[in-house]
Amino acid sequence: MVLRNKLSARGLPGLEAGKHCDGAGLWLVKGDRKSGKWVLRVTVNGKRREMGLGRWPDVTLAEAREHADVARYSVREGRDPIRERQKRRREAQRDLHLFRDVAQDAFEARKAELRGDGKAGRWFGPLELHVLPKLGHVPIVEITQIDLRDCLAPIWHAKAETAKKALARTSICMKHAAALGIDVDLQAPEKARALLGKQRHSTSNIPAMPWVEVPAFYQSLDEGTVAQLALRLLILTGVRSKPVRFMTESQIVGDIWTVPAENVKGREGATSDFRVPLSSEALSVVAQARRHARGGYLFPSVRKGVISDATMSRLMERRGLEARPHGFRSSLRVWLAEETNARHEVAETMLGHVVGSSVERAYRRTDFLEQRRLLLERWATHVTCNPQRVIRLAEA
């Protein structure tokens, strides 16, 4: 007969460091007089196993015996008590996965796919602002379409694009959770979309200035300020505002401006920087901008860093114009379509867009630099001509 209950709760504090048997495989392993751990030795499928039952004195002798009895019963039933406990812990962990933790984990997993590792916050922002404050503390397994509907209903029409992004990011988080083995409702985001209904908001394009009006506006930018020079360069090159604002001397070699890949939006799939040929007029603008350069940047802010994204917009707004700086990309694109015979892929490349499939791009290893150089020189000729006398350029 196996002897049990050899130890007494009162006598445990007086035991020296070492191993002390309570019987039937239950041991107290003491590191010193004040602390130790409970260990149960069992044989599972012919193999000797040691199962920890907790630290002493946090786990009392009576509790250790109860845990040991449960484990011994599992062994008699042919089950592995250690694996059973591990399974219970995994299930408990899955149940305790909060939405905010899964969302953060999903974001970390996708950083490599995002520009600048997502530091600008455009991917995580909709979740952080509109979903996590209400649902971040909720275990993700408990989130339903009703929760998502109630969360996004206040902005579904008022901030339509943001709401759609928030719901799309939530769907990604749900899929991420499922990949982790968490039992979530993958259909909850789509069911929430059905409950929210069709959005009243319709997306509108950024107002653009007709290309025939660009020369008059360009020539009105004649004060040589940082904002005006930046706006002139933006018009001449057709790039977005960020590459212009963060333009540095080191990016310019001869008449080629190399924009770092992290500053170029809309080129998913492209791994290289973007080369922009500078027309004679653009080089003149760069030369004028050098007078204002600070810290390597050609368009510095008054205080520190570079001019803000809104600086050029405010300039146009103060003049009572509806058009905005980003719209000059549209002005250039329409001019290319109406006034030149530029091929589609060349015109799109001028705007920094990736054209064609990955297979097409693998074989078409060119950025049409020389063709773009000629077209941008013609565009510069157009915007610098007499605003009262717009000349229709002959095809090259």
Automatic annotation (TrEMBL):
- Is the keyword Glycosyltransferase in the record? no
Keyword Protein biosynthesis on this protein? no
- Please list the residue ranges annotated as the Tyr recombinase domain: 204-376
Q: Which residues form the signal peptide?
A: none
A single Pfam family it belongs to is: Arm-DNA-bind_3
Q: What keywords does the record list, in alphabetical order?
A: DNA integration, DNA recombination, DNA-binding
Q: Which InterPro entries match?
A: DNA_brk_join_enz, Integrase-like_cat_sf, Integrase_catalytic, Integrase_DNA-bd_sf, Integrase_DNA_bind_dom, Integrase_recombinase_N, Phage_int_M, Phage_Integrase
The family annotation for this protein states: Belongs to the 'phage' integrase family.
PANTHER family the UniProt entry points to: PROPHAGE INTEGRASE, PROPHAGE INTEGRASE INTS-RELATED
| Designated name of the protein | Tyrosine-type recombinase/integrase
